[in-house]
Amino acid sequence: MELLTHSHPAALPPLNVRWRSFELRPAGSPPLPPDYLAKIEAGRSRLAAVARESYGLTLNPGPFGIRSRPALVAEKFALSAGCGERFHGRLMHAYWAQALDISERAVLGGVADACGLDQAALLAALEDPLFDQQVQEDLDAARRYGLNSVPALVFAERYLVSGAQPVDVLRNVVEQIVRSV
Hints:
Layout: E1 2-5, E2 16-18, H1 34-55, H2 69-80, H3 84-96, H4 105-114, H5 119-125, H6 129-145, E3 152-155, E4 159-162, H7 167-180
Parallel strand pairs: 1-3
Antiparallel strand pairs: 1-2, 3-4
């Protein structure tokens, strides 16, 4: 995700968020060692507890280790059709609340349908090199930024902030950027 500006008191410009494609484990990645995989699985339950206790959110995440590329390509299609934000929100809900495998064509088609997108067109777009190229461009940009984990935010297309950060940290970054302009 690239955070371009942030809404705070009147002195700061309005928020403009642009989601970018990123694959933690692209196709061809070596398998995770079992002990590391166990550590990730243990962290998922801790994440669910923090989300529930701190934010009142109930997480029911989808399967771990799926290929996200089809969902990333589908989102590029949705963006081109003017439904990018809505598609993104429903896609995240499908994975994080409904425990759906967002690499499956049927799930992506269902998300498209829920957004009012033509399901057949979205499924055809999964094979369209144009949308795959758009995903690849985001991945190349992530590499140039030095991004290798999520969450990560890039402010003003120049400043990388990695990891889950408190709102005050993000606000301070924006304020520093605004002061430097």
